[in-house]
């Protein structure tokens, strides 16, 4: 807390402004999470290597290593650790990883309308949500498990489709599939929430 108050008092100093400027020679790998974790820039990720690199980077940039250093040095370590954590969370999650890949291609993954989904997909989603409501009302746990398997299979198929489209540089198609993945991930979360309610967690 004292560190942040001190940083606020120093916020107009040229030294602190220099701290926030990322040096291309020192920090260029922080501009690309795949480069940061020494992974190929593609949708499939070697999770074992991701975990290993994460531990290595955490140890390398941990703020405790400069606990006795200057305020600027300590803040820089905090910033780097935050970027490492953000990069790990982004690459570990298939949904966040897909969005990140699209952004790196200049595609805004969050800009969409109903036309991006297709009428068949939207009708299917509506039917699945109506089924979820019915299963919740009847407290049908077996039915919920079956629905979860079905939605999980739909999500896995969407992941495979995104990978194929991205590899073929069909970025508009990959974006549409990403938006569908968002729907499916949200539905899986809703199913988990309903199960927890029925189990009285």
Could you give the topology of this structure?
Blueprint: H1 2-9, H2 14-20, H3 24-27, H4 33-36, H5 47-61, H6 71-92, H7 94-104, H8 119-138, H9 141-167, H10 171-198
Helix pairs in contact: 2-6, 5-6, 6-7, 7-10, 8-9, 8-10, 9-10
Can you walk through the features of this model?
- With 201 residues, this protein is mainly α.
- The chain folds into 2 domains: 2-92, Orthogonal Bundle (Helix Hairpins); 114-198, Up-down Bundle (Monooxygenase).
- Helices cover 73% and strands 0% of the residues.
- The chain is built from 10 helices and no strands.
- Helix 6 (71-92) crosses helix 7, helix 8 (119-138) runs antiparallel to helix 9 and helix 9 (141-167) runs antiparallel to helix 10 (171-198).
- The chain is globular.
- The two termini are 36 Å apart.
- The model is unreliable at 3-26 (pLDDT under 50).
